[in-house]
Every structure is written in C-alpha cells, then in structure tokens.
Amino acid sequence: MLKWKEEYSIGVAVIDEQHMRLFEIGNQIYDLLENYLLPDKYDKIVTIILELKDYTIYHFKTEEDYMLKIKYPGYFKQKVAHDDFIKEIESIDLDAIDQDQDGHTRKLLNFIFDWVLDHILKSDFGIKEFIRITR
C-alpha cells in the first residue's frame, strides 16, 4: 500500500490531486491482491487496468498542457516518459494475467508504485523547481 504524503506535492493543486488519484488506483490493485477470499480476480484486474490507462491518459494530458503553459523546458522528456508508461500499460498481456492472477497483479502493482513514485519525485519535481525559480 502506498500512502500520499505532503512531501510528494509539486504545488500545483490539480496535478497533486490527480497524483493522489493515481495512488488510489494503485491501492485498488493492492487491495485486490490482498483479498484472499476472492478466488477469481480477473474481471476486477482488467477493470482496474482500464481505469488506470484512461486516468493516466487524462492526467498526462493535464500535466503536459500545464508544462506547455508555463513553458517548462523538460516537457519533451516528460512527454516521452508519459508515452512509454501508456505503452507499458497497453502491452499488458491479459491472457497471462488470467493464468497467474496474483503473480502478474503483484508485478503490475510494483511497476505502478515504482514508476509513479519515481516519476513524481524525480521528473515532476522538476516542474516544482521550475515554478520556484521562475516566480
């Protein structure tokens, strides 16, 4: 489980709120993985993956529009990272998940939590720093 901490904030309310929502989606995966009473999780896993994909596309557009608005010099690097994340989510093999639901769900959870935290704390903090020095 991953908990939002104020230290993850980049100081842009709409982006911070969307980051919190990404944490919530990741935690839905965690909760599903920890639910040992549910023998077949496939449909719920697929639903969460689709929600994650749709929400990250929405979030990345918001973040990219904001970066363009403030003329953030790291925009293109961020755009590539965002596109790579979406490609990774789109490449998830749903048949493989059906064969080993917990194993693949755990890999997905680790990927999401690692990527989101790393991206916020490294890439998105560049936005925070840029705002600080340009205001």
TrEMBL record:
GO MF term set: metal ion binding
Keywords for the protein's UniProt record, in alphabetical order: Iron, Metal-binding
Keyword Metal-binding: yes
Source domain of life: Bacteria
Family classification: Belongs to the hemerythrin family.
SUPFAM superfamilies in alphabetical order: Hemerythrin-like (SSF47188)
Xref: Pfam families: Hemerythrin (PF01814)
Organism per entry: Desulfitobacterium dichloroeliminans (strain LMG P-21439 / DCA1)
Name of the featured protein: Hemerythrin-like metal-binding domain-containing protein
Keyword Transcription attached: no
Domain Hemerythrin-like, residue spans: 11-128
